[in-house]
Amino acid sequence: MKKPSFIIGKKQIVLAGMTLMLGIAVYINYAVSSTGNEIKSTGKVEKQSVNYGDAELVSTDETDDYFAQARIDRMTARDEAEETLKSIIGGGDATDEEKAVATEEAAVMTGLMESETKIETLVKAAGFTDCVCYLDGENANIVVKSGSEGLVASEAAQIKDILLSEVSVPAENIRIFDVA
Q1: Please, which residues bridge with residue 177 across strands?
Q2: Which of 56, 131, 147, 175 could disulfide-pair with 123, CB 3.0 to 4.6 Å?
Q3: What is the pTM of this model?
Q4: Strands 174-179 and 140-145: what pairing?
């Protein structure tokens, strides 16, 4: 049986370049059309020194749809990552080492997803209206919807305690955002 050889030629390079350009054009079209002909931008966040006992509070102005959209975006990103890992694991041309790494990444991703769900449930049980948690192993970002008076330091500390009871994240990598 003849083993197939993979040669990267001019046609493959041109095809890859055109695919990349198409992907960029689709993304720019989406970014511009969803914001009314302006590309979304975020404000500059300056890092401040944080002590372990301190909680960092950040307030944003978003609508009630924020939480639903955030969950959809997170689910979409995770589904894409899952499909990529499945293709690596199930791919015939991946080595055993690549498959092992992909399997380990899938297990880590599953653990993070479970932790996010558990943290969100516990924060809601603590009396907050809504919550979305983002974990990546080293950082933790929690977006909560608190009452009309905003998030106070004791509530931020309570959220931080819930987070640290579920995952091990350095205190300086924890961010708590309050959406009014």
Answers
A1: 58, 143
A2: 131
A3: 0.56
A4: parallel
